[in-house]
Design brief:
Two copies of one chain form a homodimer.
Chain A: H1 5-21, H2 28-35, H3 39-45, H4 49-74, H5 80-97, H6 99-104, H7 108-116, H8 118-145, H9 154-173, H10 183-194
Helix pairs in contact in A: 1-2, 1-4, 2-3, 4-8, 5-8, 5-9, 5-10, 7-8, 8-9, 9-10
Chain A binds a DNA duplex (30 and 30 nucleotides) through helix 3.
Chain lengths: ~200, ~200
DNA sequence: GTACTAACTGACTAGTCAGTCAGTTTGGAA
DNA sequence: TTCCAAACTGACTGACTAGTCAGTTAGTAC
C-alpha cells in the first residue's frame, strides 16, 4: 500500500463530489465516507474545506496542463488551421474523458473563491492561459502559413473559440439538448470562422 | 401601497440573491431581511424554498420572453443575416441589462432541479426554446433571401451560436478576462461563420 | 361598531455542518 | 524491544438553517 494513499483518495473523492455537487452541497462527512476514513482525518491533511478545494483545483490544473502538453508532443499538424481544429477536438475529448475537471471549472464557487483567494486565482489563470495560448498559437501559425484569415486578432479569436467550446460543453451537460451531436458541426463552424477564404 | 408588494418584493430579492449567491448559499432569513419582513412571511407566500426558486425562474422566463418579443415587434431587418446579428447583439445587451436573469440560468441548481421538478424543467425549456428559435428563424430567413450559407443546418447552427453567446457572457462574468471587449469581435465572427460567401 | 378572513409575525424545533481536541494506532529507526 | 513522530480517530461543539405553529394585526363587508 502506497504511503499517501489516504490523502490522494480524499483528493480524488473531493474532486468528484465538488465537481458534481458543488462546494456547499458537499459535506466533509460525505467526502470522508466516500474515501472510507474518519471525518477528522481530512482535517489532518487539509486545514479547512476551502484548503481542500484549492488542492483539488491544483490537481485539476496539473492534469489539464499535462494532458495538453502530451497531446502536442505526439501530434503533427499540416497547418495552423488543422492544429486549431485538432486542439478544439482534443478539448472536447478531454471534457468527456475527464468530466469532473471541466465541471469544476464551471462551478461558480471556483470563481467566487478566486476573487478573495490569490492561490485559487493563480491556478484558474494558469488553466485559462494554457487553453487560450494553444488556440492563439495555432492561429498565429495559421496566419503565417496562410491557412488562417489575416484580418483576425488572434488573441480575441482564441478567446471567442474558447467561449464557444465551453458553451457547447455546458449546453451538453445541461441535459436540455444532446449537444454531443454538435461536436462535428462545431469543428466545421470553427473552420468557416477562421479559414483564409480566397 | 399596492396590495401584493411584499410578495413581489420577496420575489425580486430572491431573484437577486439566488442569481448572485446561488440556491444553497442563500438563506430564507437573508431573503427576508433584504425584503424587510419577518422570516415566516416567506413561507406564507411560498410553500418551500424550492417553490420560491421555481417562482423566481417563472418570472425570469416571463421577462426574457417578453423582452425578445418586444424587440422583434419594433425592429425591422434588411436580411436574415442582419436579423441574426441583431438578435445576438440584443442577447448580449439583455445579459448586461438584466444580469440576474442570465446568472440564474448559469446556476447548476437550476438544471439539477429541472431533472426532478417538471415545472422547473418546463420553464427552462421555454426559455431555451425562445432563445434558439429566434436564431433559427433568422437563419431560415437568411437562407431564403440568400444572405446565409445554404449548407448550414439552421437548427444546429442556432444551437452553436447560442452556446457561443452564452460562453462569452460566462467568460465575462468569470472576471478573468474583460470579455466586453469581445462583443464586437463576436458579431464579426458570427457573420464570418454563417454568411453566404460567393 | 362587529365579524370574518387574509396577511403577517416571534418563538421555536430538529437537523446539519465545519472544525476541534484529546487520545489511539501505526511504522520505522535505534 | 523501546521510543517517537506521523497518521488517524470518535466524540464533541457552536453556529446556522428550513420549516412549523399558535397567535396577532390589517383590511373589508355588513
Amino acid at each position: 500500500m502506497p504511503k499517501r494513499s489516504k490523502k490522494s483518495t480524499i483528493l480524488s473523492m473531493a474532486t468528484l463530489l465538488f465537481a458534481t455537487k458543488g462546494f456547499t452541497n458537499t459535506s466533509m462527512t460525505e467526502v470522508a465516507s466516500m474515501a472510507d476514513i474518519a471525518g477528522a482525518t481530512i482535517f489532518y491533511h487539509f486545514k479547512t474545506k476551502e484548503d481542500l478545494f484549492v488542492s483539488v483545483l491544483e490537481s485539476v490544473k496539473t492534469g489539464i496542463v499535462k494532458e495538453f502538453s502530451l497531446y502536442f508532443q505526439e501530434e503533427q499538424f499540416t497547418s495552423g488551421l488543422e492544429m486549431l481544429l485538432g486542439a478544439v477536438a482534443y478539448h472536447l475529448h478531454l471534457a468527456t474523458a475527464n468530466r469532473e475537471w471541466f465541471l469544476l471549472l464551471r462551478r461558480h464557487y471556483t470563481y467566487e473563491l478566486a476573487v478573495v483567494n490569490p492561490i485559487c486565482r493563480k491556478y484558474l489563470e494558469d488553466i485559462y492561459t494554457c487553453l487560450v495560448d494553444i488556440f492563439e498559437k495555432a492561429l498565429d501559425l495559421g496566419q503565417q502559413d496562410g491557412s488562417i484569415n489575416q484580418d483576425l486578432s488572434t488573441r480575441k479569436t482564441a478567446l471567442i473559440i474558447l467561449a464557444m467550446v465551453d458553451g457547447i460543453i455546458q449546453l451538453e451537460s445541461n441535459n436540455l439538448y444532446n449537444a454531443g451531436a454538435l461536436y462535428g458541426e462545431l469543428i466545421v463552424s470553427c473552420r468557416r470562422m477562421v479559414e483564409n477564404k480566397q
